[in-house]
């Protein structure tokens, strides 16, 4: 009998999608804006579920969400809807509470507004975390000159930051389910600021791997990002067609 390793087991992804995305200046939450006649959330979820190692996606939504039922995702047996919280971290914790820890000892968390993540990058984060027995996140090194604004005037330069050790944090971020849950709970109890899963792990004193990811894994945040994500998705489709020829 061949022993099954963790890398062979299925994975579940939590997608926090309870936010409203005010910076998009749209009439609906940004995850429901459309690219090529499909919502961003649909693109993201389908990209995740089409990966051979991912068998379930937990989408965390506001109880007042009236758009989800219009996407067709609600009819997918591999998608679980969970109620969202006040902040992203609360939504992620609600998603973690819905997981069978014995079945899924590792968890991935991915932004709803990152529809361009590739299967190759998902492979990299899974393989490197399992191989090192350590959680981590997709990221890319900063290439632009970084400026810090003045403490007294936020619209003027205070200093230039050394970028040699700076990285842009992406998702998915992958951690041991129990460790992430405990790290978030402890940080919330102490009213500490948690901007992503990695920050909760950092506050718990645990290490995180930086896994180099593709720069087209953008987060749609502002109106101009929608056109860029559309371009990237179209380019990735052409890239896949060429590989299949």
Which stretches are low in confidence, meaning pLDDT under 50 for 5 or more residues running?
A: none
- State the oligomer: single chain
Topology as H/E string?
EEEHEEHEHEEEEHHEH
**CATH homologous superfamily placement:** Spore Coat Polysaccharide Biosynthesis Protein SpsA, Chain A
Strand content: 15-25%
Main pleated sheet:
7 strands, mixed
- Enumerate how many helices there are, as a single number: 6
Biggest sheet, spatial arrangement of strands: 5-4-1-6-10-7-11
Class inferred from helices and paired strands: alpha/beta
Main CATH class: Alpha Beta
Q: Any descriptors?
A:
single chain; 245 residues; alpha/beta; Spore Coat Polysaccharide Biosynthesis Protein SpsA, Chain A; seven-stranded mixed sheet; two-stranded antiparallel ribbon; 6 helices; 23% strand
Kindly describe this structure:
- This protein is an alpha/beta fold and 245 residues long.
- The chain has one domain: Spore Coat Polysaccharide Biosynthesis Protein SpsA, Chain A (Alpha-Beta Complex).
- It is 31% helix and 23% strand.
- It has six helices and eleven strands.
- The strands form three sheets. A seven-stranded mixed sheet has the order 5-4-1-6-10-7-11, sandwiched between helices. Strands 2-3 form a two-stranded antiparallel ribbon. The protein has a two-stranded antiparallel ribbon with strand order 8-9.
- Helix 2 crosses helix 4 and helix 4 crosses helix 5.
- The chain is globular and about 50 Å long.
- The termini are far apart.
- The mean pLDDT is 92.
């Amino acid at each position: 009998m061949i022993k099954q390793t963790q890398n062979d087991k299925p994975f579940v992804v939590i997608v926090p999608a309870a936010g409203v995305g005010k910076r998009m200046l749209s009439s609906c939450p940004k995850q429901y804006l459309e690219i090529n006649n499909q919502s961003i959330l649909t693109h993201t979820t389908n990209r995740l579920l089409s990966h051979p190692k991912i068998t379930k996606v937990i989408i965390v939504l506001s109880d007042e969400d009236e758009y989800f039922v219009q996407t067709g995702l609600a009819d997918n047996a591999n998608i679980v809807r969970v109620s969202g919280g006040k902040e992203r971290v609360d939504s992620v914790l609600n998603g973690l509470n819905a997981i069978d820890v014995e079945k899924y000892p590792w968890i991935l968390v991915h932004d709803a507004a990152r529809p361009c993540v590739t299967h190759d990058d998902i492979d990299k984060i899974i393989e490197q975390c399992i191989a090192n027995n350590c959680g981590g996140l997709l990221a890319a090194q900063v290439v632009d000159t970084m400026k810090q604004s003045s403490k007294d005037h936020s619209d003027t330069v205070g200093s230039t930051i050394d970028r040699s050790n700076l990285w842009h944090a992406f998702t998915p971020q992958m951690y041991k389910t129990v460790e992430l849950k405990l790290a978030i709970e402890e940080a919330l109890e102490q009213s500490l600021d948690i901007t992503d899963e990695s920050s909760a792990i950092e506050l718990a004193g645990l290490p995180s791997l930086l896994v180099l990811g593709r720069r087209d894994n953008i987060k749609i945040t502002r109106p101009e990002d929608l056109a860029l994500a559309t371009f990237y998705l179209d380019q990735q489709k052409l890239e896949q067609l060429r590989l299949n020829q």
